[in-house]
Design a protein that fits this description.
about 425 residues; single chain; 4-stranded antiparallel β-sheet; 13 strands; 11 helices; 3-stranded parallel β-sheet; alpha+beta
């Protein structure tokens, strides 16, 4: 039968002091009787640890049976078997020395007993009473604390290794994807050459942006697909360049949310020459551009105008209409009127401009002369077209024509008199 120490509460502090002295004396007697035997909580801790050793060893034995155990697992199994043998041997020695199992004894230290737990009467406790339950609880708690840190470290190590494996796998997949991209698009090698892909995304985009000057691009004003450019045909227009920039940034460097923006209406621009080979500005003998539309890339609020390698929006003198107007005075009978008072008209594959004020004067003058020179109107119109074809900004030519027509008008009036 298991011994239990139970002491009923005293009413005053002097009684408590007396009983506490007796209690300490009793414990000293027990300690003398049991010699070097371990406290019961420690014994229960060892029992719990033995059970955990046995559980872990069983799993390893199953692995060994099926031939799936690792060298580390085999070494761990040997250590566990050794520890279990030592625990069993110690238990046998205790049983043979005292004739009973001390692991089932629960003795509370006197200095840990509170006033509320002191009772004057010593009794024999029953198996499974609250003292043995408390001993079981303490033993379990101790074992859990002993094993918690190694288990946590082991879990952290497993998670860390998993994280490293996933990171390595992601890097390998990224490298394979980049290699395939360069194999399919040979010109992309020139664009990404020397760019450190570990840099911040804005730095990568800026370097990619500037690298377009190295591909010997031909600006033909004719749109081509970005795939055609990247496969080795560096020609096209602003849309071709912007979409090629987006494709390399997203598919090679993995930078997302790049958008393509555009001006959809015709406009005049003072942007100047591009950094590429090909055509100079196509309007007014290389002084400015006339575009039917324009495209550029943007990311995180920043502009990447790849045609001009500029981070600024193109300043545009917008046309008032999308489709061209018509006039018999224009060389090709088509023209655009812009918001800033210019008339833009085509001459073969280029453009020229004239001030709206001059154009309106010519129209009014021709309309007025029509009543007097109906027979020679075609000749007058041809002279005007010839002047526009030479240069719309040749104001001296227009002034000369006006004087000539005015002179002819006066001569006609005199002849009629």
């Amino acid at each position: 039968m298991k011994e239990r120490l139970q002491i009923h509460k005293k009413a005053d502090s002097s009684a408590y002091s007396s009983e506490q002295s007796q209690f300490r004396a009793h414990l000293l007697t027990n300690h003398s009787q049991f010699g070097s035997n371990k406290p019961i909580v420690q014994t229960k801790v060892e029992n719990h640890k033995f059970q955990q050793y046995q559980f872990e060893a069983t799993k390893l034995q199953i692995q060994a049976k099926h031939g799936t155990i690792t060298p580390e697992g085999q070494e761990r199994l040997t250590v566990l078997q050794t520890k279990m043998n030592e625990s069993l041997q110690q238990g046998k020695e205790h049983s043979s020395q005292f004739g009973h199992n001390l692991s089932k004894m629960a003795i509370k230290r006197a200095d840990s007993v509170s006033i509320g737990e002191i009772q004057p009467k010593l009794t024999i406790g029953q198996s499974g009473d609250r003292y043995e339950q408390e001993a079981d609880r303490v033993a379990t708690s101790v074992v859990n604390q002993i094993n918690r840190s190694p288990l946590q470290n082991q879990d952290a190590g497993v998670k860390n290794e998993q994280g490293k494996s996933e990171e390595i796998l992601a890097v390998n997949n990224s490298a394979d994807k980049k290699q395939k991209f360069l194999q399919e698009y040979s010109l992309a090698k020139t664009l990404v050459n020397g760019i450190d892909d570990t840099l911040p995304q804005d730095k990568i985009l800026e370097q990619l942006f500037k690298s377009f000057v190295n591909i010997q691009f031909q600006y033909t004003m004719v749109s081509k697909s970005p795939e055609t450019l990247l496969k080795g045909s560096p020609e096209g227009d602003c849309q071709t360049l912007a979409r090629a920039f987006k494709k390399v940034a997203e598919e090679y460097f993995g930078i997302e949310k790049i958008t393509i923006e555009s001006i959809a209406k015709p406009f005049l621009s003072e942007a100047g020459a591009t950094p590429y080979q090909g055509k100079k500005p196509n309007c007014d003998d290389g002084k400015r551009w006339f575009f039917q539309n324009h495209y550029w890339a943007s990311w995180n609020g920043k502009i990447y105008d790849v045609l001009f390698l500029s981070n600024k929006r193109t300043e545009a003198d917008m046309a008032k209409q999308v489709q061209p107007l018509t006039s018999m005075l224009m060389p090709e009978q088509e023209y655009y009127e812009t918001e800033k008072g210019k008339i833009v008209y085509p001459i073969v594959n280029k453009y020229s401009t004239v001030e709206v004020s001059i154009f309106e004067k010519l129209k009014n003058f021709v309309n007025n002369l029509g009543r007097f020179f109906s027979n020679s109107m075609s000749g007058i119109i041809n002279k005007i077209r010839s002047l526009f074809a030479q240069s719309g900004n040749n104001t001296s030519g227009f002034d000369s024509l006006m004087r000539e027509l005015e002179h002819d008008k006066n001569n006609a009036a005199i002849a009629n008199k």
